UniProtKB/TrEMBL annotation:
It comes from the Bacteria. Gene3D superfamilies: 3.30.70.100. This is Heavy-metal-associated domain-containing protein. It comes from Paenibacillus roseus. GO terms for molecular function: metal ion binding. Residues 2-66 form the HMA domain. PROSITE patterns: HMA_2. CDD domains: HMA (cd00371).
Length: 67
């Protein structure tokens, strides 16, 4: 399993956490949001999912992902 940290802007509440973690889970990865740091720690199988796919599902939920 690969682990990475994604910087995300616009997260402010538990609803944001649920949206992002749910979207990441729906594509077969694990995500843990840290609101204070503005990050999402992700774990995923690189053979099935790439980091850019995780970043894209976060964007589709309306958040800005920092490169």
């Amino acid at each position: 399993m690969k682990e990475a940290t994604v910087k995300v802007q616009g997260m402010s509440c538990r609803s944001c956490v649920a949206k992002i973690e749910g979207a990441i889970s729906a594509i077969g990865a694990e995500g843990h949001v840290n609101l204070e740091q503005g990050t999402v720690d992700v774990r995923f199988d690189e053979g099935k999912i790439q980091i850019n796919e995780i970043e894209e599902v976060i964007r589709k939920k309306g958040y800005n992902v920092e490169a």
